[in-house]
Predict the structure of Fasciclin domain-containing protein.
Amino acid sequence: MQLLKYTCLILFAGVIACTKKDDTKLSTEVENRLAFVIDDNKFNFSFFNTAMGRTAYRNELLNDGPFTVLIPDNNAFIKAGYANDQAVLKESGVILNNMVAYHIVHGTWKLNEMPFKFNQELSAISGSKIYVTRWIKNADTVVTINGTPVLAFNLNASNGLIQVIDNVLQPLVYSKIGEVISSDTTLNYLNVALQQAGLKEEFYKNEVNTFFAPSNNAFRKAGFQTIDSISRTDANVLKSLLQYHFFQGRRFIYDYILTTGTTERTTQTMFNNNTVKISLVKSGTKYTSITLAGEGNANPAQVIKSNVMAGNGVVHIIDQILNENQK
């Protein structure tokens, strides 16, 4: 009986000890979940943390997951126009919800171990596509997401990983390039030109294209002073002009930076099989953008807005019409 008593006490003590160990382990695991890790890194992640706090995704990142969170650092938010945390707080709740959802992916994704390939598809928690490129540039391995570089890889949490990125990703709002163009008031001239040329429906199809879209001012500089002047232009003339502004496939601006050699120049074959000259733009020691020049352009066109996403491609807005005819 005495032996049985001590045996029961030992077993009971063992249960208590195991329970304490399990509770400690569970407590540590919870404390190291993504929501808390992000909150603890206020120096780098306070803007994203503020945005996340306006959504239901803070609680989501306390769940088991696993999740991979693509976090724009504070500098990325400043580049996107948010001067401080208060500016993020003042942003529309709908915009913040869409933004945060587009930066979270189900699963554990070590982006620096993905294949060496351009624009590999992942799906954000919102269902929208994200495009990951892993490539080698000057002996360095570079990873980009939607054309924005990844700054730090695989920061661990108990329920997933954090990847730190250089820009705030713009959520996929439009399913088709045609919607991007028709909804942007700076592209009204282009929208009418596509209609007049009989090309508009092409950009509502599923074929993936990259479009270097001339702004309204670009059309004016080329001599189209009004939208009516575009409507009066021969459809075949406009069709020829516009086919020199897009090509099949998805190319982000940083894709050119990754694939262009030490000359800092390359070419892009457009839909009409003629080429545009591409030159890299450098700010300090970093390449940041490109310029484009057709055979008939006296000066290169500047990219004034890049990487506007659509389900069937990407749009880059430029400040000149590309001219393929030498003057």
Remarks:
- The radius of gyration is 26 Å.
- The chain has two domains: 28-165, 177-318.
- The chain has a mean pLDDT of 91.
- The chain has 13 helices and 14 strands.
